[in-house]
Amino acid sequence: MADPMRIRAQAAGDKTTVRVLMAHEMESGQRKDAAGKTVPAWFIQEVTATHNGKPVLTAEWGPAVSKNPFLQFVVKGAKAGDKIAVTWKDTKGETRSDEATVS
Questions:
Q1: Is 13 exposed, middle or buried (0-12, 13-18, 19+ CB in 10 A)?
Q2: Do the bridges between strand 15-21 and strand 6-12 make them parallel or antiparallel, or are there none, so unpaired?
Q3: What does each C-alpha distance from 94 to 31, 54, 88 come to in angstroms?
Q4: Hey, what domains does the chain have and what are their CATH numbers?
Q5: Are 53 and 61 in contact (CB under 8 A)?
Q6: Most buried among 12, 22, 76, 94, by the most CB within 10 A?
Q7: What is the DSSP code string of 27-57?
Q8: What are phi and psi of 43, to 5 degrees?
């Protein structure tokens, strides 16, 4: 399984800014290795985020997203102590889920 995501969720008024750093190689499928063979595509395809178990974000990504992608979004109505969970699934079927508490 991949390294944990670094998730920060900070409330300011009625809005919470969520910042996520995901550890993933994100191969596009167009690069060649030292032997000249194409490196197979391997990237995050689906990203979802929930606030206390309720979906607040869904995204479909492609091969053009950079290595170790950073994602930032705002959630309305989240308060200190609430839970924000982020899950991704890649082209090999691997998944990763991590959670943070709003501060």
A1: exposed
A2: antiparallel
A3: 21, 22, 8
A4: 6-101 (2.60.40.10)
A5: no
A6: 22
A7: B-S--B-TTSPBPPPB-EEEEEEEETTEEEE
A8: -150, 165
d(CA 22, CA 90): 12
Measure the CA–CA gap between 16 and 79, rounded to whole angstroms. Answer: 8
**CB of 77 within 8 A of CB of 14?**
yes
- pTM above 0.85? yes
Tokens standing for 23? 């550890």
pLDDT tens, residue by residue, 11-56: 999 999 999 999 999 999 999 999 999 999 999 999 999 999 999 9
